[in-house]
Design brief:
Rossmann fold, alpha/beta
């Protein structure tokens, strides 16, 4: 992870917490202990997600020339591998590169035998990157549904429920195609609760949700999906369910998640002399509402030494404007407004993959004078929050956190320091 400069000890400390959290989830640290023995037959390595290329490189180093396959990652997140092909594709909206990669992956696992083994390397972002439309659907259909869901405020588990049922590869379909070869999913979790079926939408594990559940999500958020989507969800085409004999050799292991990252941040906080309090590693909800709740918690903190409130998970944003910024920027701007200059409270919120939404920043920092400095520049923080326009505000203040792609992803890391 690139080094981060900060102009004062408090900001430098918050950045140290974030760096420690990300380091705990790097594939070279968390993956080797979970790699199984090499099979007697072929070892086919496939995967999808923002950490997929970095994970593939670790796997290659472990098995040497035994490993073969293909992984797909987001543009700018590739890492060179020798025997495992690395493809870059679109995220958060799927593109043709992701569809072509998914077709190649599905073909690679077909025709294998019981002496072969498939490793599926799953990480956050895999759902968009591994985009193979179900029969009767087009890539344009999937893009339209994804875009609408991302703007709707739906939780990631709900979004992935829909994605699984519009896919020819997710929701256990990849494992079914590989049968009788066993498949092991090794996942760096970016989903609250670490549900392996939700990470990259679970191509290698059974899916307990149904097409009716997917329809219910679209109805709940009033998503105007293309007609072909509703026809498919009503067609009776279901994903493999628990107990499906084709998935009898499918297993899954979470190799890192938000809890691991927060524990590392807490250890770093102790080194700094700060008292860490972990609020939870699976916090969801509207970013503005979560910010207001945490601002209230921060105001109640007392003690003889600085206290840092740590949390992970994934908030959501219901888009009401057309501004720039991700959910962490939205959270921080709402937090600053809720605190309204409360003294001695600082905060950081960043996405562990290094990209907050679709911009070039991982997140940003907030200080007691954030609103005052913004208003001195002629900015209206409340109006910018209403327009979902947090990025320009933090950019103008010089408070963006820019790391570049970290090549891992355990979702958001938030730290609120009460001095």
């Amino acid at each position: 992870m690139p080094s981060l400069a900060a102009p004062d000890p408090v900001r430098a400390g918050l950045l140290r917490l974030f760096a420690a959290a990300v380091a705990a989830a790097m594939p070279e640290r968390c993956l080797p202990a979970h790699l199984p023995p090499a099979p007697a037959g072929r070892l086919v390595v496939v995967g999808a997600g923002k950490a997929a290329a970095a994970m593939a490189r670790v796997v290659e180093g472990h098995y040497g020339g035994k490993a073969e396959g293909l992984v797909v990652t987001r543009y700018g997140h590739a890492t060179a591998c020798d025997r495992i092909a690395v493809v870059e594709a679109g995220h958060p909206l799927p593109d043709q590169a992701g569809t072509t990669a998914a077709e190649r992956i599905l073909e690679m696992v077909r025709g294998l035998g019981p002496d072969d083994r498939v490793l599926f390397l799953a990480s956050g972002g895999g759902s968009a990157l591994l985009a193979l439309p179900a029969p009767g659907l087009t890539l344009a259909d999937k893009r339209a549904v994804t875009a609408a869901l991302l703007r709707s405020g739906a939780a990631i588990a709900e979004i992935n429920t829909v994605r699984r049922h519009l896919s020819a590869i997710k929701g256990g379909r990849l494992a079914a195609a590989a049968f009788p070869a066993p498949m092991l999913t090794l996942a760096i979790s970016d989903v609250p609760g670490d549900d392996v079926a939700a990470i990259a939408s679970g191509p290698g594990v059974a899916d307990a949700t149904t097409a009716a559940d997917a329809l219910a999500v679209l109805e709940r958020y009033r998503v105007a999906a293309p007609p072909a989507v509703f026809r498919h969800l009503g067609s009776g085409d279901e994903t493999p369910k628990p107990g499906d004999p084709r998935l009898s050799g499918a297993g899954a292991v979470i190799v890192a998640g938000a809890a691991d990252a927060l524990q590392a941040a807490a250890r770093e906080a102790e080194i700094l002399g700060w008292r860490p309090v972990v609020l939870g590693d699976a916090i969801e909800g509207e970013a503005r509402a979560v910010a207001c709740s945490m601002a209230a918690q921060a105001r109640t903190v007392t003690g003889k030494r600085p206290t840092v409130l740590l949390s992970g998970g994934e908030t959501s944003v219901t888009m009401s404007g057309s501004g720039r910024g991700g959910r962490n920027g939205e959270f921080l701007l709402a937090l600053a407004l809720a605190l309204e200059g409360a003294p001695n409270i600082h905060a950081l919120a960043c996405d562990s993959d290094g990209i907050d939404g679709s911009e070039d920043n991982a997140g940003a920092l907030v200080a007691p004078d954030t609103l005052a400095r913004a208003r001195a520049l002629g900015l209206d923080p409340a109006a910018m929050l209403a327009a979902n326009d947090s990025y320009p505000l933090f950019a103008a203040l010089g408070d963006l956190v820019i790391t570049g792609p970290t090549r891992t992803n355990v979702n958001d890391i938030r730290a609120i320091l009460v001095e």
